[in-house]
Design a protein that fits this description.
Blueprint: E1 7-12, E2 17-24, E3 27-35, H1 47-69, E4 78-84, H2 88-105, E5 109-113, H3 114-120, E6 135-140, E7 145-150, E8 156-161, H4 167-177, H5 184-192, H6 215-231, H7 235-266, E9 270-274, H8 281-289, E10 296-298, H9 309-321
Parallel strand pairs: 1-4, 4-5, 6-9, 9-10
Antiparallel strand pairs: 1-2, 2-3, 6-7, 7-8
Helix pairs in contact: 1-2, 3-9, 4-5, 4-6, 4-7, 5-7, 6-7
Bound molecules: 5'-O-[(R)-(carboxyoxy)(hydroxy)phosphoryl]adenosine and zinc ion.
């Protein structure tokens, strides 16, 4: 007898993207993201505005998702939502919405950890490849930078963390110093393509163990730009591509140095990346290049790098199959433990 594949609704509202996906088995039926443009004019996410925009977006995004998936709410087997980490006001919108649906439809609720979900996105069936257990995942987003040992769909152990800024934050803050609009990561990636990454050498931080630090780099870039602009007010405009390439090169070098150390120490060559910064073209290229040293590198599809509902749905599916259901009484958690 063929078993019916479960249909999971995934709801993501942890930061500034309102995202909903519908998953059947390991296949995405629809995956909608409403990116909030409002934050661009403020140079970063304004939490209060993010919560309000989630309120406005969430019903239309659900309606679009259901239509594209050719589903009705009664087809859904369970509702997965991002419980944290993230911005409390943003999380409250998604969690209240998920709880309302769970109560109204009498379907189980699944509490997903946003950071684990970034990793779970690798198991959606339309990625170029699927990692085998155990594997290492470098999870690089706007709020986190982690190296995770992934033992199974649900067992994951953080080996290294950032002690201050995240890699995405380093991209965004460097961009802000150059008056590149938020989020600066994708634009630095774009400008860096025609720049010389050796033009301006920045200091590579060296932390003990597997942890990261990016705050020193941030200060280094700030002082460097301040001095150069004093000498030549047009310095940034005249050297934008070289500065972007140099900043990007430094961030990637810091990330890959640590990742290589973990690969060597754990003797695990199965390596994945996840999170918004995993969309970075140079990081993807340099990681792939390590395959000549025996690494097997897994790069997520672009739409599964930055925040999305698909990753919440697939992470929810693993909880659903394990019978790990959520509780309507549990509040969202901005600092949800891994
Ligand atoms: O995972 P994500 O969508 O949200 C969080 O959970 O934080 O990551 C957003 C981060 C932002 O800092 C953004 O600048 C960065 O990912 N990002 C990139 C690129 N695309 C997004 N950074 C560098 N290069 C990119 N192509
Ligand atoms: Zn994220």
């Amino acid at each position: 007898m063929v078993q019916k594949q479960s249909i999971i609704l995934g709801i993501e509202t942890s930061c500034d993207d309102t995202a909903i996906a519908i998953l059947r088995g390991n296949k995405i039926l629809s995956n909608y993201v409403a990116t909030q443009e409002i934050h661009t004019e403020f140079g970063g996410v304004v939490p209060e505005l993010a919560s309000r925009a989630h309120q406005q977006n969430i019903i239309p995004v659900l309606e679009k998702g259901l239509k594209e998936a050719n589903c009705s709410l009664s087809d859904i087997d369970a509702i997965a939502y991002s419980r944290g980490p993230g911005l409390l006001g943003s999380l409250l919108v998604g969690s209240s919405f998920a709880k309302g649906l769970s109560l109204g439809l009498n379907k189980p609720l699944l509490e997903v950890n946003h950071m684990k979900a970034h990793i779970s996105a690798h198991f959606i069936n339309d990625n170029a490849s699927t990692p085998k257990f155990p594997f290492l995942c470098l999870t690089v987003s706007g709020g986190h930078t982690q190296i995770v040992l992934v033992k199974s769909f649900l067992e994951m152990e953080v080996l290294g963390n950032t002690l201050d800024d995240a890699a995405g934050e380093a991209f965004d803050k460097a961009a802000k110093m150059m008056e590149i609009p938020y989020p600066g990561g994708p634009l630095i990636d774009k400008y860096a393509k025609t720049g010389n990454h050796l033009a301006f050498p920045f200091k590579i931080s060296s932390m003990k163990g597997y942890n990261f630090s990016f705050s020193g780099l941030k200060t280094g870039i700030l002082y460097f730009l301040r001095q150069k602009v004093e000498e030549n007010p047009h310095f940034i405009q005249e050297n934008l591509n070289d500065i972007c390439a140099s900043v990007q090169h430094t961030i990637i070098t810091i990330l890959l140095k640590k990742l290589s150390k973990v690969v060597k120490d754990y003797n695990i060559h199965e390596v994945a990346i996840a999170g918004g910064v995993s969309a970075n073209s140079e990081l993807r290229k340099q990681l792939k290049a390590n395959e000549v040293d025996g690494w097997k590198v897994h790069l997520p599809k672009f739409e599964y790098c930055t925040d999305n509902g698909a990753m919440i749905a697939i992470a929810g599916k693993f909880l659903f199959e394990a019978g790990q259901f959520g509780d309507l009484k549990n509040p969202p958690s901005p600092r949800l433990k891994f």
